[in-house]
Amino acid sequence: xxxxxxxxxxxxxxxxxxxxxxxxxxxxxxxxxxxxxxxxxxxxxxxxxxxxxxxxxxxxxxxxxxxxxxxxxxxxxxxxxxxxxxxxxxxxxxxxxxxxx
Length: 101
Hints:
Blueprint: H1 3-11, E1 21-27, E2 30-32, E3 35-38, E4 43-48, E5 57-58, E6 62-63, E7 72-76, E8 81-86, E9 94-99
Parallel strand pairs: 1-4, 3-9
Antiparallel strand pairs: 1-2, 4-7, 5-6, 8-9
């Protein structure tokens, strides 16, 4: 049975056992951290602790739609690349997610 995780790793496929969870806090009209490096298959959760709704949007990659005050939204990282994130309600709010592997 130990051969299965090794085979999956050799194929480069993410598995829940090897994926990490990351949290981006939305507070004070900003994303914290502003730059996040993750691996393919990692889960990123945006938690809105601000007093107004926000989005986590990367054109062509993902769009949280409205994340209400006190709510959260998650995305699982796909292929390697850089994703510039913006709040569509507040375009001055920006962040970057880098999928490194």
